[in-house]
User: Fold this.
Amino acid sequence: MNPLPLHQLTDIRPRLLSTPQLRDHGVSPAQAAARCRPGGPWQALLPGVYLLHPGTPTSEERLHGALLYAGRPVLPAQFEHGTAPPYGNAMITGLAALALYQFASAPPLTGIERIDVLVPRTRRLRSIGCARIVRTHSLPAAGEITGLPVAPVARALADAVAELTDADLVRRLLTEAVRDRHCDPAAIVGELSRARLLNLPQVVDVVDSLLAEGRSIAEERLYDMVGMYQLPDPVWNVDLRLPGGPHLGKVDVYWPDQAVAVELNTRSPRHGEDAAWSEHVRKREHLERLGITVVHLTPAKLRDSLEQQAMVVRTALTAAGDRAPAAYVVVLPR
Assistant:
């Protein structure tokens, strides 16, 4: 397909192109600069990114422009009219991404002064104009919203929190992410930990309530799973103890007849939890030596593959008849 003639470029949506894309249309940098002079029909939105009209850029144009600036586009031989411009491996993150995810707590795109764009650490760019460059050693897999590459919620939250000083806004964003089930709290805490943000005053008071909220949601899903897939009735939230002997630990669900326990793994990679994790492993190994099967489920698995997790539990229950009898344990309410 032949390049569009210069006078038809304004038909492209969104109405902006990068220097390489203009060159693909036969428009030189000098020609582009001439059209951006005062009173001209174009304007430079960002270095190497041209808005093909003189008016105020829309939120959509700012998003696409920031991606064009930060991305490393691989152009076809000729840019096809109507095809979305390529953005390499750049993606929207931070508050702009949360606005695209329709977070009620995030400001609208029109109220966000700078668009955060996540790029590989090797990209040599500076933040300028409406684009703020966020570098990372390891890029996450991007999602897509209205044709735009967007960082996962947990990563977008961490990048937003890194720039925020408003403790109330941080709390509302993090709480909304969990309550509206955008992602699991362990994923959020993991991203905050990797970004070394867990000790920030505006973060530290939120984390425990975040994890508690996530556990409550996971417990609801676990309860629904037992009923929905007609598993045998268990006992819930109990302590196990040897008769006249030591305390064995707490489990979330237990089937005494089959000696099968389910534990929700809602731990997160927070500093200083190595001792707690070691104790958790010792408990599991002790229960299994007594012949009790321990099934570990995570909030993410319960959210994304409830039927598959029900099959895992059902298999453990069915296999109980083929195992040697487990040691007798006392079951006490928590």
Remarks:
- The chain has eleven helices and 13 strands.
- The first helix runs from residue 19 to 24.
- Confidence is low (pLDDT under 50) at residues 76-85.
